[in-house]
Amino acid sequence: MSGAALEIDHVSKRYAVGARHGWLRRRRAGDEIWALRDVNVRLEPGESVGLIGHNGAGKTTVLRLLAGISRPTHGHVRTTGRIASLINLGAGFHPELTGRENIFLNGVILGLSRREVKTRFDEIVEFADLGAYLETPLKRYSSGMYARLGFAVAAHVDPDVLLVDEVLSVGDVAFQDRSIRKMLSFRDSGRAILFVSHNLSAVEMMCPRTIWLDHGVIRQVGPTAEVIRAYIDAVDEALIGGTARPGGSTLDQTDAFAVVGATLHDKNRRATSDFDYRDVLRVGLSCVARRDVEYVQCSLTIRGDYGPLFTATSDTFDCWRSGPHDLECVFESLPLLPGLYRVEVQVRHAATLALPLPRTIAAFRVTTDLSAFGSDSLVGATKSRGGFLAVAYDWRVQTSAGEQVLAGLRRPTIMAPSRRR
Predict the structure, then answer these.
(1) How far apart are CA 140 and CA 233, in angstroms?
(2) Are 334 and 366 in contact (CB under 8 A)?
(3) What percent of the chain has pLDDT over 90?
(4) Taking CA atoms, which of 78, 149, 299, 331 is between 20 and 30 Å from 293?
(5) Cα gap 50→113, rounded to integer Å
(6) Which of 82, 78, 48, 85 has the alpha carbon at shortest distance from 63?
(7) How much is the average pLDDT of 340-355?
């Protein structure tokens, strides 16, 4: 390995699929899945690398191979030093034992001596913030408490290599903040970290370099900002391609109500996914009430790369009779810089049992080159990374020589000329 903290060398991993009957698995030709195909990964000591991709891309398989949980079908996996795996938090815990007893049990399983666990015991308890429940059996812990204790123990093993899989999805906001700070301290102290997460902001904060895994194959490796940009573009391009959905394709539904179609149109009601800055955006929703429903309310949210930008929420409709209903929301003037954006819908009504989650229903591009309208800002002239709104700004600095103004973003003063669509 010549000094590498970990290395995956031309690794492929195959899983058998098929029905199991007793102790035997009956397989037919082709009843197998290649989770990884000829993957190469190398981390140097002190390097923090992100691993991103869709669900089922093979990310967790990579971590399981490095942790020694499974073996590759082809190729070689090599690691050096102590490995701390934050994959299945709390693996090795015993539900009948107390939190205190499980700290010692899990610490020893992860490679510490009993004396080392005792030395770090107070730090683990303080980090997990479970002091009041320390003498309580784990079977009475909530899932969040369980995961917090598992992370606290694994994070204090003092590893040379840290394998992390979606650990930021557990615990409350305060615990997530402590977790990310702990991992940053690992990174800054020279430990190698392989960080798997769907939280792209966290990946960008943690990792200078990122690997994009797609259906078991490495699609791109490079600076994190570039790889994330390419990944998001690919996801949104696929979504744009599927924006025009047939009427029978259900987007969101309950027993009483369903959204079965979504369309995007310009001001002239022509279907399109390409818009200019300040264009009119018409979002159409085809809905079906399976029975009479009351107090229907719909929200549409325009979302950038990492979060929502603005939302349009309707008044409450007193009653919708059983049958089809067509909704349209018209955004009069898009205030968006060039980039890719998503449209999310959230529908509530009296028969909704819980607050429904927003669902992505469509995507569109804003393609205007703002430099054509007098903007000399790089943010204004190129595709923005974070889905920024077109808010004008500049910078001013006061010195003994007087005030200096640094040009920022200038919004167009005229409407963008119509494009041929």
Answers:
(1) 44
(2) yes
(3) 26
(4) 331
(5) 31
(6) 85
(7) 79
Which secondary structure element, helix H or strand E, spans residue 221, and what is its range?
A: strand 217-223
Residue 323 has which token pair?
């049958």
- Is residue 180 classed as helix, strand or coil in its secondary structure? helix
What Å distances lie between residue 398 and 394, 401, 403, 407, CA to CA? 14, 8, 5, 15
pLDDT tens track for 192-213 = 899 998 878 788 888 899 999 9
Contact 16, 31 (CB under 8 A): yes
Q: What residues contact 304, with CB distance under 8 A and at least 6 apart?
A: 339, 341, 386, 387, 388
- Taking the C-alpha atoms of residue 114 and residue 119, their distance in angstroms, rounded to an integer, is 9
pLDDT digits (tens, 9 = 90+) for 50-90: 999 988 899 989 988 998 888 999 999 998 888 877 776 66
The pLDDT of 248-273, averaged and rounded, is: 78
What are 210's strand-pairing partners?
50, 222
In whole angstroms, give the CA distance from residue 230 to residue 387: 14
Question: Taking a C-beta distance cutoff of 8 angstroms, is the pair 333, 278 a contact?
Answer: yes
Report whether 184 contacts 166 (CB < 8 A). Answer: no
The residue ranking higher by pLDDT, 414 or 318, is 318
What global pTM score does this model have? 0.67
Residues 6+ apart with CB under 8 A from 357: 346
Pairwise CA distance, residues 141 & 133, whole Å = 8
- SS3 assignment, position 269: coil
Q: At what angle do helices 173-188 and 143-155 cross, to 10 degrees?
A: 20
| Average of per-residue pLDDT values in the chain | 80
Distances, alpha carbon 158 to alpha carbons 162, 176, 391, in Å: 9, 19, 46
Strand-pair category, 217-223 with 24-25: unpaired
| pLDDT number for residue 163 | 87
